[in-house]
Amino acid sequence: MHTRTMNSVRCSKSSNKTLSLVFLCLLSFLNEQHTVLTLAEANSNVYIVYMGTRQHDDPELLAETHHTMLTRVLGSIEASAEAMVYSYKHGFSGFAAKLTKAQAQAISELPTVLQVIPNRFHKSQTTRSWDYLQLSSYSTTNVLHKSKMGNGVIIGLIDTGIWPESQVFRDEGLGPIPSRWRGICESGELFNTRKTCNRKLIGARYFIKGLQAEYGQPYNSTEYQECLSPRDRSGHGTSTSSIACGSFVANVSYNGLGVGTVRGGAPLARLAMYKVCWNLYGGGVCTGADILKAFDEAIHDGVDVLSLSIAPDLPFPDVEIHNGISIGAFHAVAKGITVVCAAGNAGPSAQTIQNTSPWIITVAASTIDRSFPTPITLGNNWTTMGQAMFTGKDTGFINLVYPEVPELLSPRYCESLTPNDTWLAGNVVLCFTSNSNHNAVEDAAWSVKDIGCLGLIIAINPSRYLHSCDDNFPCVQVSYEIGTQILYYIRSTRNPLVRIRPSKTHLGRPVSTNVAYFSSRGPSSISPAILKEHPWQLLMSQALLHCSNHCTQIGPLLLSNQHL
């Protein structure tokens, strides 16, 4: 058994009746991703006790019945209070508690309990796009204007939190907060609701008890550079929120590239953030218990739409018919709330689709018709186009080299250069890589720059990601075919030269669109009868400019699971 100690609570500044037979039949198609959990104690774990539709309209009375049930099994009020993690009492009935397997089995046999579910782990999934989808803000006849740009709609995000100071969350031009709104803004570390919430960001809460109970220790926010508050540390929730309903921000670009007005799909909608995902072991980790609590509160608060860029990990080692997202989404939809979830980032293989419940709108990632062509001219005056985000000065003609050292020639040579490889300094280097990791270009660029090289031309196929590298350092991506032509030139020329000019922004043909390489595909191996995310039956998402590692998608690329 491995136990992770988490002991600090400081924030790093860096940063209705029982369910119908129809519901049960539909759920039988679904599967819950199983992840091996780290236990705080050898014989206990967090379980979700699911009891279906609420039996009482009074939420406090419902919570009391949950405590009574748990007391009956554990033997004392004190033990019940210590074991209880959450009481789900607004949108549906149930609770999360710290139990042994025997205790969980005993509770599952009670007549009012539909199922006891282990507390699974899930993960967060990370300007031109709306115009490309023919939802331009300049047209007065499209769906955007017919829907009044989302005016009066409340969108809830279940994600990693929010960075409220972003300009896309300003409330200029918005009227009073809808009177039907019952949610709150919750203060916490580096999150003062008097300064952060407004008529745009009308709700902000965080849920971590499910994660803490699983580990049995307080979450060390300093170690993991997190904030015990709705504050977003990773940027994922801020990104998805701005894409869903960000306000208009004009003249946005990357150093002059891709100039335009940034806005969300529903720029006049209100926003509520429910933070459930936490930085842990280098990723956004979200437990089923916390996700269900966010659903429960969002239903109570009065949201109209719920968006989740969260999914369990592949592979599916077991087949269960319930999980936190599908259960919470079912009850939300039953209340008239539209639920949109990520298809997942496990592509391009088939049968990798996640969030397959039929009542969920499952969203994949597509590409847009924008590229950033970068002229490469060789010493023989042959010019070809690469892809880059190079905004520096024209390099003029400088020396071009290819590392012709047999023992060093490898598909990942440039990513593994050392400070001793100074013989390459002062040149533009041509490299080939078969590394499918989206950091390959960035790693190679850092390596060649550190030893004094003046630029990088990297042949990589397929060209899935476009990295900005350093603003003034040219690192240009080309296909294997073009890379080979450049290599032939180097080998046939005594003093090979190259000139790299700044990148431009190109819209429209010949750039075509397709399903993003990383976006999960169907059919579902668990529920193949439910049509989800076949490449030819795809509800595609809107485009996004940057991913978490400053990775910009060219024409056929953008960040996944952003929502319409």
Automatic annotation (TrEMBL):
Domain Inhibitor I9: 46-121
High-level lineage: Eukaryota, Viridiplantae, Streptophyta, Embryophyta, Tracheophyta
Principal subcellular localization: secreted
Family: Belongs to the peptidase S8 family.
Residue ranges occupied by any Peptidase S8/S53 domain in the UniProt entry: 150-530
One annotated Gene Ontology cellular component of this protein: apoplast
Record flagged with keyword Translocase: no
Entry function: Required for arbuscular mycorrhiza (AM) development during AM symbiosis with AM fungi (e.g. Glomeromycota intraradices).
Any Gene Ontology biological process: response to symbiotic fungus
CDD domains xref list: PA_subtilisin_like (cd02120), Peptidases_S8_3 (cd04852)
Keywords: Apoplast, Hydrolase, Protease, Serine protease, Signal
Molecular functions (GO terms): serine-type endopeptidase activity
Signal peptide (UniProt feature, chain positions): 1-35
Subcellular location: Secreted, Extracellular space, Apoplast
Alphabetized InterPro entries for the sequence: Peptidase_S8/S53_dom, Peptidase_S8/S53_dom_sf, Peptidases_S8_3, S8pro/Inhibitor_I9, S8pro/Inhibitor_I9_sf, SBT
Protein name (record): Uncharacterized protein
